[in-house]
Amino acid sequence: MIVIKFIIYLIIFLFCIPFIYLFQFGISNLFSSINNLFTFYYFQLIFNTIALVLSVTFTTIVISLFLSWATEICKLKFAKLWRILLIFPLVIPSYLAGYLFILFYGTKGEIYQLLNNFGISVDMPDVYGFWGAWLCLSLICFPYVYINLSTGLKLVDRKLEDASRVLGHNHFQTFFRIIFPNIKNSLFAGSILVALYTLSDFGAVSALQFNTFTLAIYTKYRSFDFPGAASSALILILISMPIIFYFIKMSVFNSYKISQKTSNFSNLKLFDLKQYEILVQLVIFFIVLTSIFIPFLMIFNLILRTDISFVKTLDLIKWSAVFNTFSGATINSILCVFISLLLVLNISKKNNKLRLVFENLMYFGYTLPGLVIALAFVYFSINYFFSIYQTWIILISGYTVLFLSAGYAPVRTNVDLIGDKYTVVSKSLGKSFYSTFTNILFPLYLPGILKGFLNVFILTAKELPVTLILAPLNFYTLSTVIWDNLEEANFSAAGIGSFLLILIISIPTYLSVHVEDIKIKFSKTNK
Amino acid sequence: MKILCQIYKSMFFATVLFVLLISCSLETEATGVINEVPVEVVKETEKSKGNLVIYSGRKESLIGPVIDQFKSISGINIEVKYGTSTEIAAQLILEGSKSPADVFYAQDPGSLGSVIDMLQQLSPDLLEKIPAWAKSDKGKWIGISGRARTLVYNTDNVKASDLPKTLNDLCDAKWKGRMGWAPTNSSFQTMITAMRKIWGEDKTKAWVKCMMANDVKVYPKNTPQVEAAGKAEIDIGLVNHYYLYKFILDAGEGDKFKARNLHLESGGPGSLVTVSSIGILSTAKNKDNAHQFIDFMISKLVQNYFVNATREYPLIEDVDIHPLLTPLHEITKANISLSDLADIQGSAKLLQEVGALPK
Lengths: 527, 359
Prior knowledge:
The structure holds two protein chains of two kinds.
Chain A: H1 2-32, H2 40-73, E1 74-75, H3 79-85, H4 94-105, H5 110-117, H6 130-155, H7 158-166, H8 171-200, H9 203-207, H10 213-222, H11 226-257, E2 271-272, H12 277-304, H13 310-315, H14 320-347, H15 352-367, H16 370-384, H17 392-418, H18 421-428, H19 433-461, H20 465-470, H21 478-487, H22 491-526
Parallel strand pairs in A: 1-2
Chain B: H1 2-30, E1 51-56, H2 60-74, E2 77-82, H3 85-95, E3 103-106, H4 109-114, H5 124-127, E4 141-154, E5 179-181, H6 186-199, H7 201-213, E6 217-218, H8 222-230, E7 236-240, H9 243-250, E8 259-262, E9 273-280, H10 287-297, H11 300-309, E10 313-314, H12 344-353
Parallel strand pairs in B: 1-2, 1-3, 5-6, 5-7
Antiparallel strand pairs in B: 3-9, 4-7, 4-8, 4-9, 4-10
């Protein structure tokens, strides 16, 4: 028990490092430049940031509600294929997504060229600015909500649905009145990830030139204004505070209301769409087309864009990057899921205050731009822990602080949904906690664990700023390879790097969907 | 437990697949050769020649082959950290005297200028090989390759007679909505620094304001600007000279790519020539190796590599420039010392004040 306590406090300490750094460098500057805060310019910057966060979050919620309803509740052909494909927009790093977005939708982009070939000359709308950033981020972010929602839907007690139908509600009334309140938690868990991702995103907003706080922080670092950057990061935290408080309050509040019974998958009755199935399929196809097929096509377009022979282009790819990307992402996601389970099981029910403190801290880690976290860790380890500087240890710690919340959210939702009735029963039957966990709880927590693992895996595999700054010397990941070649305009090599990244991420993506299906089959045959 | 079995099974297959992938890739790595520079490699039999830690603001895809070559010639164990020049400078400042770095190689003199107190004096035999305009006046860094600020213009939409002669010509209303720039880019900010030195703060501010009033489009960096000029998304962009050849030569688009460079006749900040530059940290643990590395970087071999791989200007004599480039002596260079270009923060401040950069 002491060991667990020690680990928990160690993790909390890790999350405090960025704050210590920011306060040390930023607080004096924040007060000396407080007059700047009340200018029209700052107002506009804050307004831009908040507008983008709200619009992207809202859009992703709408898209994901539809998609999860269609793929989990309805009887749909290709449902498994869609379920796998719909995770893939996450694979594309945002700096690459922004670039591909411009290549395709830009004023003289592929659409324009295509229409031009047919003799139609259209003025494409300007992709730079709010609309571009909104659409691009919505398209790469919606799977966060979708993954959480579909996990939530799997866990809802479907007998409730039957009861509701018997009592005279139609399918949609049932969905919004009975099912929806039960998956609200998953919705919150997913949408906070989107909101905070948008808040901390640099790649897409910089490619599409929409002025947000994160862009301002980076610009300051790049002109060596460190105190200015630190104080801007503090303001970013202030902006994110209400969002985080709201989400956490809502999810804690909700966890008392939700049904504590769970589906055992045996009574899966799928909703028959009848003649409307075509329509639903078309909408899904359109979403898959814009968010997956088009970016992937553009990646192949990049690969073909070269005069150098293919073999020479392959030389530009550092192959150790494949290994590093895979192992870094695997280690970090296992670690994050493990920590999440440890925290949820140990501090969830007993110590609500500690849990609140912790959840807040964790989401702040996700809000801060990677650059800020990376420099904070540089500062910390240079001054106090030089032996871990530029090693795997500090790199993984940085990753954990950035992405723990992405692994924590689905795990917690799942644990909350299961409740502690099984533990109580198992305990009363004289089983030890260990055997309860491995035999009963782990299989029940598996959907959440898998989704948490997948979230963190994808985020880590495509991470750039922290990798660049904290990684050991001579260390490459696919993400750094893509960035490197994109900056140097080696389009072909950047395309191949992206392709490899997609391949790597598709392994855990496929596995997690596959394992879930096995689980469903398994529980069906067990009945 | 059946589920766990299934997971383990699938994980096992994934691992097997992965190991196969890696083993294939390792073979490919062994065959990697330096691009475009056929050289006989003199392999030394002695192994340990010490270490060298390089922080590089230039990308691995560009100087990786050079470093590999140096490794096999010298037998030194080299470790490199890649990143953005300014972010590495920020990291160096945080690291202070504990920095593991021996050498800092940056895109621009400004990044080295911002850590100049952490650099040591370079030895005369390195300094004398580089012309006076391309090195630090205190002898703390030297240039490795030259790059010129140019205008890139679309050849369909801009007639030769219409071409601007000075940067001020761009304030003309006929360019309204037809231009692009990248104010967050460090080469652009360096040009602004030169402008402040040559024109003074007020005139610089006025120019930035008139460009903004002329609806100049903002790009994140140089490459998308050149690409946009080729597609006639903009007609004029403010960039470094070498990005163009990425499209004409490497992407194989040749004459189909409708953009070309223009070196302003009048000189001034618009035709600034800067250098990628290198320096040794005063806290370096491997100073001899660092010296040897810099000497290698200004050897004929590597200078030739830069000419062919990046189409930058070589900085030592006896190395010819790329045939597509305008020779340096034909460019009216801006009359300014590169050591005066360190104040990037001041330029960023100016751009912030007029609203060209986020505050």
